[in-house]
């Protein structure tokens, strides 16, 4: 699975960035906050020959993040990207990481800079794969899987008794519920486990909500529920000894959406604490960074399951990257209402059948943004 190097040079002549916000009736709850609308930032880059590619930038948090990311891209990063001849998207990625490091430190915003660079990287890979006439997965690896398994996600534990049957009816057999809201979560999870059908899997995601004592109690009391994994039971900055203590209890521990950089992911692979490693390619790394991580995860005998809870472009990129990495993990599919995801129709009805087919469309399969999205547009800027 070596990173391809032939015919992937390009030069950017134009960048467009779009911020969208969709009002929603049912807020999306996590242990650390509530999403009262669904935001997204999509990027389109165009090369000097008229080729183009699409990317996505993380915009879920903070609440004002989407418009900020567009302005950050246009006012701080775009000028570093335009007009140079890049041998590959990865070379652009590495250059932008180096070139923005001091700016990111100066303003205390390494995350937003990493997210903008990730979006540009995704767009770069979409561009070169489209030019080659190959799905991105096949551009990255000739041995890419034809499809990847999916699981239903974004389900608050209180809503799970209604949402899981609806997801099951859509074809899902794997479900992840959000916990970390209170002591009653244990009883609620046990009740869900009691009604799961044979062959189904149940995962839980605490979103870093617990102390070590709380996490240990949850795992101990839900041991008989045979959970597929417990995700982010502790803050990412918790002591290694605490993470190791939970891993020793025997339930798979998952995490990675809040790890940044190949070095830190390398440590996560070698630590033998996380059984499931979940980079989020719109938060850090794009394709260039996360493909390298995915290879190390596989070589380390762990499960690579990309984290994602955003719009349709990032979801498609996550699916393509998982397929390129062999397809042995699972793709996270948010089942909450979000036109910024569902209007793209990528993967078609196939994603609701428990898997996502990569298909034959070049790149990510996105030619234009769906016209229906533009009623939700809050900001559009161009740099050329």
Summarize the structure.
Keywords: Lyase. InterPro entries: DgoD-like, Enolase-like_C_sf, Enolase-like_N, Enolase_C-like, Mandelate_racemase_C, Mandelate_racemase_N_dom. This protein has 384 residues and is of the alpha/beta class.
Task: Give an overview of the whole structure.
This is L-alanine-DL-glutamate epimerase. Residues 161-252 form the Mandelate racemase/muconate lactonizing enzyme C-terminal domain. InterPro entries: DgoD-like, Enolase-like_C_sf, Enolase-like_N, Enolase_C-like, Mandelate_racemase_C, Mandelate_racemase_N_dom. This protein is of the alpha/beta class and 384 residues long. The protein has two domains: 10-134 and 372-383, Enolase-like, domain 1; 138-357, TIM Barrel. The chain is 37% helix and 23% strand. Strands 5, 6, 7, 8, 9, 10, 11, 12 and 13 form a nine-stranded mixed beta sheet that branches. Strands 1, 2, 3, 4 and 14 form a five-stranded antiparallel beta sheet that branches. A hairpin with a 2-residue loop joins strand 1 (10-30) and strand 2. Helix 1 (65-81) packs across helix 2 (89-107), helix 1 packs across helix 3 (110-132) and helix 3 (110-132) crosses helix 10 (286-299). It starts with 9 loop residues before the first strand and ends with a strand. The relative contact order is 0.17. The model has no long low-confidence stretch (mean pLDDT 94).
């Amino acid at each position: 699975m070596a990173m391809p190097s032939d015919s992937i040079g390009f030069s950017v002549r134009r960048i467009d960035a779009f911020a969208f916000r969709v009002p929603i009736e049912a807020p999306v709850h996590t242990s650390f906050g509530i999403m009262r609308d669904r935001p997204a930032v999509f990027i389109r880059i165009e090369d000097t020959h008229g080729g183009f590619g699409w990317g996505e930038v993380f915009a879920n948090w903070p609440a004002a993040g989407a418009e900020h990311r567009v302005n950050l891209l246009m006012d701080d990063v775009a000028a570093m990207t335009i007009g140079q001849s890049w041998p590959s998207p990865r070379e652009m990625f590495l250059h932008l990481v180096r070139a923005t490091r001091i700016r990111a430190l100066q303003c205390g915003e390494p995350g937003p800079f990493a997210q903008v660079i990730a979006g540009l990287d995704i767009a770069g890979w979409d561009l070169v794969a489209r030019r080659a006439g190959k799905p991105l997965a096949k551009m990255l690896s000739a041995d890419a899987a034809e499809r990847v398994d999916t699981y239903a996600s974004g389900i608050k534990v209180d809503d799970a008794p209604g949402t899981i049957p609806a997801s099951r009816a859509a074809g899902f057999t794997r479900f992840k519920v959000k916990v970390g809201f209170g002591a009653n979560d244990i009883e609620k999870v046990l009740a869900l486990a009691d009604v799961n059908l044979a062959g189904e899997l149940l995962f839980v995601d605490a979103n870093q909500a617990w102390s070590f004592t709380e996490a240990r109690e949850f795992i101990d009391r839900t041991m008989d529920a045979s959970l597929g994994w417990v995700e982010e039971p502790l803050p990412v900055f918790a002591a290694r000894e605490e993470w190791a203590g939970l891993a020793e209890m025997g339930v798979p521990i998952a995490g990675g959406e809040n790890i940044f950089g190949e070095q830190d992911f390398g440590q996560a692979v070698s630590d033998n604490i996380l059984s499931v490693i979940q980079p989020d390619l719109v938060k850090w790394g794009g394709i260039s960074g996360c493909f390298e991580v995915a290879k190390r995860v596989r070589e380390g005998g762990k499960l690579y399951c990309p984290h994602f809870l955003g719009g349709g472009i990032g979801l498609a990129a996550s699916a393509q990257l998982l397929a390129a990495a062999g397809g042995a993990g699972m793709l996270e599919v948010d089942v909450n209402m979000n036109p910024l995801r569902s209007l793209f129709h990528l993967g078609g009805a196939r994603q609701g059948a428990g898997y996502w087919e990569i298909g034959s469309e070049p790149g990510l399969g996105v030619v234009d943004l769906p016209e229906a999205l533009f009623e939700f547009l809050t900001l559009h800027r161009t740099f050329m």
